[in-house]
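Weekly puzzle thread! Below is a chain. First person to post its structure in token form gets bragging rights.
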Amino acid sequence: MAKISDRCEKSRFLECSSHEYTISDSAALRIYSDTKPLNSKIANLQKGMILMYNGIEVVGEGTGFGVPIGKYFDETFFSGSSFLQVQEQENSLIIRKEFIMDLIARDQFRNFKLENLRFRKIIDSISLLYQKHKHFARFILRTKKLLYRFGVDSVFVKTTPKGKVIVTYTIYRKLILVNLNFSQLDRSNLEKVFVLNEQGAKFFWKYADSEGLKLNDKEIGAWELVTAQSARITDKNNSTGFSLKNVEGTILRRGRETMKGALDWIGLDYELSKIVDKFEYEIEVFG
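Winning reply:
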């Protein structure tokens, strides 16, 4: 039977610093109000719902479930601050997290920031090549690894917030209903919103979908379109994992990257070009 942790006393929406929800003997979910776990270069980014297996967080450098990113005309905004509340109900748990969109990404060479707009456009062009041309993927990944070794890395810096995105997770045992509210997000020059659902690539290794496609490890790719009605990601032994469905009006992509000391994520991420007030989807967790 799923149990609710005692990190927050039972109440009607109580502010929390963290919360944990037990799904089974081996699987659980955890969420923080700060940016834990402080893994790799996204240490100061807010995370969503984190998967745990046998008491260990298996998110790696992933963002967790239900994390919003706003792509504006001139910048891409991330969340570095949040406000977390939890409400226990008879047959479910409701977690409400306000993601304050107050960080922007900057590339850095050792201690010298590279904030030139032209440079950022070059980086964006490389990212597009990475997404559209599979035969370039390994070359670009090697290039990223080389740059990382020579001190080129991404950093996230505080800026004037673009508002906030309120994400509500309603958990019914192994099912998570995720609702994102964009009504308090500045939409001026907002081009796209991405909703990330990521965990750790060193733990999760397999991809399968409702069209019968099965992929392992590097076969999964870094940013590939999912056309199937549903897709799932599991560990090597298929003992635990998560699945999502394609949602009409959005683009669903799969991705997996590993690089020692730099990359450790696997996920199923949505892209929303038409920004509405609310976006809702389901995540099934099994294990």
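Puzzle host: Confirmed. Bonus trivia for everyone else. The chain has two domains: 3-68+79-101+161-286, 103-158.
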